[in-house]
Amino acid sequence: MQRVYEPENLMEGELLQQMLASEGIDAHLVGRHLLGGTGELPIFGLLGLEVENDQACYARELITAYIGAQPVSGDDSDSVPDVLVC
User: Fold this and answer.
1) What CATH number should be reported for the domain holding residue 45?
2) Rounded to whole angstroms, what are the CA distances from 66 to 7, 26, 59?
3) How many domains does the chain have?
């Protein structure tokens, strides 16, 4: 297993874990159970996404592409009021 990414928070970690799962990569979010002790544990480096060694390069590529994604041109969220565009 290789750590391919350290999410900033649990929500980002779970989102990326599910994104990788949708691409057929079984990712494990390690450290989620340590978050309750953040008063006594170091804040950074608790969470990590880990994948099998043979899927690490592809997982890193997908995460990099996801994080660097830009909105689709012509997508105007102002044209539809009160709608959350993700």
Assistant:
1) 3.30.70
2) 13, 17, 10
3) 1
Predicted TM-score (pTM) of this structure: 0.70
CA distance 25 to 59: 7
User: What are the tens digits of pLDDT across the range 11-52?
Assistant: 899 999 999 999 999 999 998 766 655 555 556 667 899 999
Q: What is the layout of strands, in order, in the sheet containing 2-5?
A: 2-5, 48-51, 28-30
Cβ atoms of residues 46 and 35 within 8 Å: yes
DSSP labels for 1-17? -EEEE--SSHHHHHHHH
Nearest alpha-carbon partner for 8 in 42, 36, 44: 44
Helix (H) / strand (E) containing 49: strand 48-51
